[in-house]
Write a structure and sequence with these properties.
This protein is mainly α. It is about 70% helix and about 0% strand.
Length: about 290
């Protein structure tokens, strides 16, 4: 089964890289195309590739498995994972982060969710199934970067204001991509719906100053509020082309400072209680 997922990932990666190279060639040949138009064209063309791939990887196997209820249930679960692996592979191909970032953030997310549950917060949402789903789909939080031009995504310096505006579109692009794929595979309760929440809202802020929709407080989905803190901690404590990694202590102080500004206060409380665990995870899975 793992070999099958690897093959799917390799085929998907090849198709995406080939398509993106063709798109970049067109932009190079026609340099007069404005950056925002490039983003729209890039996102549309990649979506036209992603949706058929998802249909091939998920919907067709589901149809074939429908003859036997027992067999189909097993096939549906396996196909869900297969399609999820395809999407995660897609995100990884175009992400400027590393595989270690994916490992760290998904563990951070699960750690926060478990602590929140133990504290008695959001009991109606934080059951074991939901926590499991958070862990599975958290690697898709930046899938929208497939629609960001390479010249911006791979820039080795801080982005200009115009470039930053384009980069910010990745949240809405990610939600759109996952929403297009949702109808093909959402057997496991709320899996892709949760992925859409995370991709689309993990840059929203508690005080309403985030993007893309300026959501405020509990209008931001819980999944995205948890992902937001996990992603920020990892960004602060990781090297970037334009900055060196912050120490755990400095990142910890910054996140606590942003309580009720960027982050849900009870999620920050959970983070404080799990400080040692976050530090251990960051050290255990640090970049080579």
């Amino acid at each position: 089964m793992k070999l099958k997922y690897i093959k799917i990932w390799l085929v998907t990666s090849f198709i995406i890289v080939a398509a993106e190279s063709l798109i970049m060639l067109v932009f190079w040949l026609i340099p007069s195309i404005p950056p925002l138009i490039q983003v729209v064209i890039d996102a549309v063309l990649l979506s036209l590739i992603i949706v058929p791939l998802t249909y091939w990887a998920a919907f067709l196997p589901l149809t074939k498995a429908s003859h036997s209820l027992h067999t189909s249930n097993q096939q549906l679960v396996g196909t869900q994972d297969q399609a999820l692996s395809l999407l995660i592979g897609l995100a990884a191909v175009r992400d400027d982060e590393t595989g270690q970032h994916i490992i760290r953030t998904r563990i951070f997310v699960r750690t926060l969710a478990i602590r929140l549950k133990a504290m008695g917060h959001y009991e109606d949402e934080l059951d074991d199934d939901f926590i499991h789903i958070l862990y599975k789909v958290s690697p898709l939080h930046d899938i929208g970067k497939v629609g960001i031009p390479d010249v911006i995504l791979n820039k080795k310096a801080r982005l200009s204001e115009d470039e930053r505006v384009i980069m910010m579109t990745h949240a809405a692009i990610g939600a759109s991509i996952l929403n297009a794929a949702k109808a093909s595979f959402d057997y496991e309760r709320g899996l892709i719906a949760t992925a859409i929440e995370i991709a689309g809202a993990h840059h929203e802020k508690w005080d309403g100053t985030g993007y893309p929709n300026g959501l405020e407080a509990k209008d931001i989905p819980l999944s995205a509020r948890i992902m937001s803190l996990a992603d920020m901690y990892d960004a602060l404590t990781s090297d970037r082309p334009y900055k060196v990694a912050w120490t755990h202590e400095r990142a910890f102080q910054e996140i606590v400072r942003m309580k009720t500004v960027a982050f849900d206060p009870v999620i920050v409380d959970a983070f404080v209680l799990e400080e040692d665990q976050f530090k251990r995870i960051a050290n255990e899975f640090k970049e080579n």
